[in-house]
Write a structure and sequence with these properties.
It is built from three helices and no strands. It is mainly α and 91 residues long. Helix 2 runs antiparallel to helix 3. The longest helix has 30 residues. The chain starts with a helix and ends in a 7-residue tail after the last helix.
C-alpha cells in the first residue's frame, strides 16, 4: 500500500465522524437554540468524539463500517450536543 492509499483509507475511515461534526452544531442550534460555545468548538468536540467512537468500533468488532458503530456515532453525537448546550439546565 502506498502512502497516498493509506491517507485515502484513513480519510475515508474518519469521514463519517467529520460529516457528523459539520452538521451536528447546526442541528443542535435548530433543536435546542443558541449556545454559549462557538460553532468551531462544537465541531472540534464532535470530530474528536466521533473518531474515538469509530476507533472503538473498529477495535471491538474487528472491522469498520458496522451499523452498530454508526448507531453509536449518532447516539454519542446527540448526547454530546445535549451536553454542549447544557440540556440539563433547560429541563
Amino acid at each position: 500500500m502506498t502512502v497516498w492509499l493509506l491517507i485515502l483509507h484513513l480519510f475515508n475511515f474518519v469521514l463519517p465522524a467529520l460529516a457528523m461534526a459539520v452538521f451536528m452544531p447546526g442541528a443542535g442550534r435548530w433543536v435546542m437554540g443558541p449556545s454559549r460555545n462557538r460553532w468551531g468548538r462544537h465541531m472540534l468536540w464532535h470530530a474528536l468524539a466521533g473518531v474515538v467512537v469509530l476507533t472503538g468500533g473498529l477495535v471491538l468488532q474487528g472491522h469498520d463500517g458496522a451499523m452498530a458503530t454508526y448507531a453509536a456515532l449518532v447516539l454519542v453525537s446527540a448526547a454530546l450536543e445535549w451536553v454542549l448546550h447544557r440540556g440539563w439546565a433547560q429541563i
